[in-house]
Design a protein that fits this description.
single chain, 223 residues, alpha/beta, five-stranded parallel β-sheet, 8 helices, elongated, CheY-like_superfamily, phosphoprotein, DNA-binding, Two-component response regulatory protein
Amino acid sequence: MSRILIVEDEPRLSQLMADYLQHAHFHTEQTDSARTAMALAKEERFQAILLDLMLPDGDGMEVCKAIRRHSQVPILMVTARVDEVDRLLGLELGADDYICKPFSPREVVARVKAVLRRANPQPDSAGPTLTLDDERYEAVMGTQRVALTAIEFALLATLSRHPGRIWSRDQLMDEIYQDHRVVSDRTIDSHIRKLRRKLSDGDDASHDWIGSVYGVGYRLEQP
């Protein structure tokens, strides 16, 4: 049974999330302390962490940063701070997803299940596969090769390093433009559109390999 750590200082909300997760057959542990959360994450094995941004004894951003020093456990930020700066800062520190207050507890369960699927993809011999040929700058989908430009290949390779992780436009620009040239963040959008168009012509046109997270960035979607 997957174990979920809930870090939330509102007792009613914390218990509500725990009740719904337990009903979905998860084991939960709860704390309202940043310090306790960091200790638990270091000492015990959890499959995911629901982490509130505003805690009585610390900031959820700092907790996320501390956990990322020793663990890649999926972290879902629970926050009422929805402006883009906070979102991008959380992603820089390694958050896997956001749940914005107010929310439905059913949404929490669905988002936890989604990050667990991305963190532990199940092999499916019948599903589409995507591999990269870095000598030819090609994506290989099933039996079909898709020729890419150098920038498109670098973009896809970056997204492929951590399937399911959300990358902001700034992060993607830093990865694919090593010379730090000044380009518009909309340049990334243009490359993404072209890349999607090329990948959609492959063996499995029904699967959209690149997902968008509104106001945040992009991620590679596992089939």
